[in-house]
């Protein structure tokens, strides 16, 4: 919506500019025409009466120019252009507020932690030289630099997969199989499936032998997936024209690469996505409501600096939600370890402090705010999401 308003405002300015320019050119052409005609007359005069004729022609030109009123003709279109130009910056300011300082608080950052996040971000992006330079200039410990070798290995695996080389990925999964099993990961089967399909493209016997060696161990748990792969053997050399052509989709490779990257980061104790990228993206999404709130509450800047919770609800997309959040429907406060959600006997949930308050510190039963049931606080149990 905001970008649409900006585009419409820009189109309006452009339209007015073209009209103003067209009108100016029209007026200039008329002036030029009258002046050229007068000049031709002046050049044609001869004899003693030429001076009188010249004065007469110049006077006539003056009258024509006055009747033409070029300034009056240009004034209206120029005013419309100036009005459009004056409104456009306001549209931009409304959509892109330059002063974001109102929406953040001055807090003490842990410089070491921030440097670790930035350094690891460079390594995650494959910017190893930039990461080394940053770590060197910030004089951070080797704990950050140790990430370099780990992410270098990941990038070697991913780069090989881009060229349809699965050997580094298979070696890494086999080496870490004991750590991957508790996560219920089937990444090894998916890698073997990709390799099998690559072989089926041109060699049926080799593909059959590969299935016996590498796919058979998964038959007891993944029979349906393996049966589909076996069916593709009938289309060796022409798989792209078969009912199994979807097995050749680059999207499958991208999905498996993403899953392997996720498993790799998980074993390192790192998040799948860069914390720096997520923080910036979430901050950008949460900035507009905070800016709007602070513009409304401009006179209460000091209160904003001391608040323990955000003063307004900030809705973030699903990718920024990493754990369940419960807000008590009575107190409207988010649950904490000290004030956990409690499941009541009727099946509804309130926070502990609300139950304590409504039950007069557990001395009496109370009505559930959502149903007519009587609730005994002693029967309420902590609810873990």
From TrEMBL:
PROSITE patterns: CTLH (PS50897), LISH (PS50896), ZF_RING_2 (PS50089), ZF_RING_GID (PS51867). It is found in: Cytoplasm. It comes from Malus baccata. The keyword Cell division does not apply. One of its GO terms (cellular component) is nucleus. InterPro entries: CRA_dom, CTLH/CRA, CTLH_C, Fyv10_fam, LisH, Rmd5_dRing, ZF_RING_GID, Znf-RING_euk. The lineage of its organism: Eukaryota, Viridiplantae, Streptophyta, Embryophyta, Tracheophyta. It holds the Pfam family CTLH. Residues 150-207 form the CTLH domain. This is RING-Gid-type domain-containing protein. SMART domains: CRA, CTLH, RING. GO terms for biological process: proteasome-mediated ubiquitin-dependent protein catabolic process. Keywords: Cytoplasm, Metal-binding, Zinc, Zinc-finger. Residues 328-371 form the RING-Gid-type domain. Residues 328-371 form the RING-type domain. The keyword Zinc applies. A zinc finger (RING-Gid-type) spans 328-371. One of its GO terms (molecular function) is zinc ion binding.
């Amino acid at each position: 919506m905001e970008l649409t308003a900006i585009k419409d405002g820009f189109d309006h300015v452009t339209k007015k500019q073209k009209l103003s320019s067209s009108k100016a050119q029209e007026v200039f052409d008329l002036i030029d025409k009258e002046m050229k005609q007068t000049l031709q007359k002046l050049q044609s005069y001869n004899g003693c009466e030429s001076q009188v004729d010249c004065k007469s022609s110049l006077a006539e030109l003056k009258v024509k120019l006055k009747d033409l009123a070029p300034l009056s003709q240009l004034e209206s279109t120029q005013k419309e252009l100036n009005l459009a130009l004056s409104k456009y910056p306001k549209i931009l300011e409304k959509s892109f507020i330059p002063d974001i300082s109102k929406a953040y608080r001055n807090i003490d950052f842990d410089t070491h932690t921030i440097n670790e996040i930035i350094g690891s971000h460079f390594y995650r992006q494959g910017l190893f030289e930039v990461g080394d330079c940053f770590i060197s200039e910030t004089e951070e410990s080797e704990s950050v630099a140790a990430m370099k070798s780990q992410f270098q290995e990941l990038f070697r695996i991913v780069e090989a997969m881009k060229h349809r080389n699965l050997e580094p990925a298979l070696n890494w999964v086999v080496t870490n199989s004991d750590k991957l099993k508790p996560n219920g990961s089937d990444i090894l089967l998916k890698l073997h499936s990709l390799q099998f399909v690559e072989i089926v493209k041109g060699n049926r016997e080799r593909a059959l032998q590969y299935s016996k060696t590498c796919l058979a161990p998964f038959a007891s748990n993944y029979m349906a997936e393996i049966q589909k792969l076996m069916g593709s053997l009938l289309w060796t050399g022409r798989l792209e024209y078969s009912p199994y052509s979807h097995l050749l989709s680059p999207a499958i490779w991208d999905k498996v690469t993403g899953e392997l990257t996720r498993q790799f980061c998980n074993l390192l104790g790192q998040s799948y996505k860069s914390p720096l990228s997520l923080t910036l993206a979430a901050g950008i999404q949460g900035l507009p409501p905070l800016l709007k709130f602070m513009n409304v509450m401009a006179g209460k800047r000091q209160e904003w600096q001391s608040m323990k919770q955000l003063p307004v609800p900030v809705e973030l997309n699903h990718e920024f939600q990493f754990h369940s959040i419960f807000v008590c429907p009575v107190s409207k406060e988010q649950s904490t370890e000290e004030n956990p959600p409690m499941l009541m006997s009727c099946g509804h949930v309130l926070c502990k402090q609300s139950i304590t308050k409504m039950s007069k510190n557990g001395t009496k039963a109370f009505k559930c705010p959502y149903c007519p049931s009587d609730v005994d606080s002693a029967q309420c149990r902590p609810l873990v999401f």
